[in-house]
Amino acid sequence: MTARFKTPSVFNEYTTDHIESNAVQVSTPPILDTPRSLPGDCDVKSFINEHFKYYNGDESFLAGPTQRTQDALTKFKQLLTKEREMGGVLSVDAEIPSTITSHEPGYLLSKEEDVIVGFQGDEPLQRTCKPHGGYGVVKKALDAYGYTPGWKLQAFKDNVITHNDLTFSMYTDK
């Protein structure tokens, strides 16, 4: 049996036809008005529509990877292979809770050669610990790879109210 139903958009005043086998007709939510623009709003849709140019050519304008990119990919593949050989992680910083500024940049090739800097840890493929979501998850992950959390991470166990702690504290026994 084929059913035809309309799905409303919550932001637009139009609906879209859908045909689906064995579909169940469901009640549709009310359609919300398009929010009015406010000063400083960015109208991405209009910007794209105003600046979009259709390209009808082929890929001949594309350039291949540079030698630096190929070198970085080779080094990255070597590190991934070494990581797999070591059982899943190459290195873990089990001492410092990870934040956006907690670690120095880790370079894949070198400070001079890397164009994009942003490895999460001080060295390539170093895993960092993010206990702000909950100490238990971090502890289990470290245990799985034979690491022991340092005192700064352990502080999250008893001295820091994490997002998960706060969320679960709102539930009652019922």
Task: Walk me through what this model shows.
The radius of gyration is 26 Å and the shape is flat. The two termini are 43 Å apart. It is of the alpha+beta class and 174 residues long. Strand 1 and strand 2 form a beta hairpin. Mean pLDDT is 81; it is low at 9-15. The longest helix is centred in the middle third of the chain and has 19 residues, at 67-85. The strands form 2 sheets. A two-stranded antiparallel sheet has the order 1-2. The chain has a two-stranded parallel sheet with strand order 3-4. It contains 5 helices and 4 strands. The chain has a domain at 87-169.
**Main pleated-sheet profile:** 2 strands, antiparallel
The radius of gyration over CA amounts to: 26 Å
Q: Can you tell me the overall shape?
A: flat
Discrete helix count: 5
Number of strands: 4
